[in-house]
Amino acid sequence: MFYGAMKLSIGGSLKLAFRPWVEGLENIPAEGPAILASNHLSFSDSFFLPAMLDRKVTFIAKAEYFTSPGLKGRMTAAFFKGVGQLPVDRSGARGAGEAAIKSGIEVLERGELFGIYPEGTRSPDGRLYRGKPGGLARVALATGAPVIPVAMIDTEKIQPPGKVMPKLMRPGIRIGKPLDFSRYHGMDGDRFILRSVTDEVMYEIMKLSGQEYVDIYATAAKRQLAEAAKQEKEEKAAKAAKDEAAKVGKPGRTGRSGAKDPDAAGRNEAE
């Protein structure tokens, strides 16, 4: 009931304000379990997609969103629960990966829709990055649920990093045909099979989204961008320090000690 109320209020507001367009709604089954595997461009992806579907979609979110103290923390937890987010405890030996797999299997065993982002994190630059094989493929092979590729379009342009107010524009959603991986049943321990399943899904997402594909993980790309930004900042600081030192050290009419050059003073008196 809470999900329905939140969907009606938040989903209705999103549809009214942004008027998102959708293609391929007929590919979402009316009942039964299915995995929605989507690219990830914006924080808002987890809201726009459920807003446009009749069925409930459960995504995973870090447990910190549900355990923060105080009134703000309780309101945040209520919001995430209300929109179908599922807390994942990232502690333990293998962290979020194992928790996400377990949560996904439980959702699908209830006959519901499970949403997952194979890239593992938001794209840092709008391109599509290599999918992580652990979560998506293992959940699909463990449950036999079909995988439905989904492409979010232009959601990253609504509220770019550093912008407080969202831009009113029409994002899009393209939903592809379900992918059946039942041929790999019982092979979820084979890393080559997991890689093959993940790559097949990512290829379908690429076709739907039209994004440029980058064959590295988005987490690695974010590290590279952070390191490049840090290096650029250090180089600018070094250049600024060098320029400042050059200004201070310019030759003038003083000697090394800072006293006036006696020869120069004599010349001035003669003039």
Describe the SSE topology:
Elements: H1 2-18, E1 21-23, E2 34-38, H2 45-51, E3 57-62, H3 64-67, H4 70-82, E4 85-88, H5 96-109, E5 113-116, E6 128-129, H6 133-143, E7 147-153, E8 172-175, H7 191-209, E9 213-214, H8 218-248, H9 262-270
Structure in words:
The protein contains 9 helices and 9 strands. The protein is of the alpha/beta class and 271 residues long. The strands form 2 sheets. A 7-stranded mixed sheet has the order 1-8-7-2-5-3-4, sandwiched between helices. The protein starts with a helix and ends with a helix. The model has no long low-confidence stretch (mean pLDDT 84).
List keywords for this structure.
seven-stranded mixed beta sheet; globular; 9 helices; 9 strands; 271 residues; alpha/beta
Give the structure's gist in a few sentences.
With 271 residues, the chain is α/β, with parallel strands linked by helices.
What is the first-to-last residue Cα distance?
96 Å
Helix and strand succession? HEEHEHHEHEEHEEHEHH
Multimeric status of the protein: single chain
Strand order, main sheet: write it out. Answer: 1-8-7-2-5-3-4
By secondary-structure content and strand pairing, the structural class works out as: alpha/beta
Stretches where pLDDT falls below 50 for ≥5 residues? Answer: none
| Rg result | 27 Å
Number of strands: 9
- Portion of residues in beta strands equals 5-15%
| SS element count, helices | 9
Average pLDDT figure = 84
Please summarize the sheet with the most strands.
Answer: 7 strands, mixed
Q: Estimate the global geometry from the Cα principal axes.
A: globular
Percent of residues in helices: 40-55%
